[in-house]
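Intended use. Records like the one below are meant for learning the mapping from a protein sequence to its folded structure. Do not use them to infer anything beyond what is encoded.
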Amino acid sequence: MDEVLVEDRPDGVRILRLNRPERLNALTPDMVGGLIAAMDGPPGCRAILLTGMGRGFCAGVDIAGADERQRGRSNADAIVMQERFAGMVLAVARTPVPVVAAVNGPVAGAGLALALASDIRLAARSARFIIGAPSIGLSAGECGISYFLPRLIGLGRAAEIMLTNRHVAADEAVSLGLVTSLVDDGELPARADEVLSALVALSPFGQKMTKQVYRSTIDSSSLEAALELENRTQILANATADAAEARAAFLEKRAPVFTGR
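Structure written out for the chain above:
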């Protein structure tokens, strides 16, 4: 059984389903490798949906398997594995298309990092957001959690959650701004489809540039640096065939047909 199920839809959406439901989709090295590879979508990929099979999104690292793998392992081996898991999060953040995480139940540890690294987070009411690592004597900062969480909800709230290791229920996650939509469990796929439809309705180049800009300007050294990047990006986008098509469609009162050029 494939641990990461990949489905490519005709509309350009790639769906990635974590597929170890008997272990709440806990991550193995093979799953990590599969996710990294799957983030490089096929030509024409417009958006990626990340979700879990069964009753949970992802329980983080498979602790039982990790304990077995650690026996007799050197620190040099350990850092290679740690960097591999961190590379999974980088792959989500760096893929040029928008990534939507549909959190269908508990999410913890490196699984939480996957959701945080995504561009849009949707949650079912059964979702719970858990850091988890402090429970096994580790730091709450792993796989980018200490980078993304303060940027999403503010340093004070992030520090409280990371230091107390408390679980965040779905309704609180919405109020904190950790997720943007909260729906009943059975409605999560439909809500995800609504968001994905909105994403693929826009210019592929424009969407790529939007993600590239906000991933860069969040850490800009100044407003001037952010504006410089935005200005150059808009000039590039304005010269595309899709921008010309959008202008023509506006004047002709019709829906634009984008080609990604």
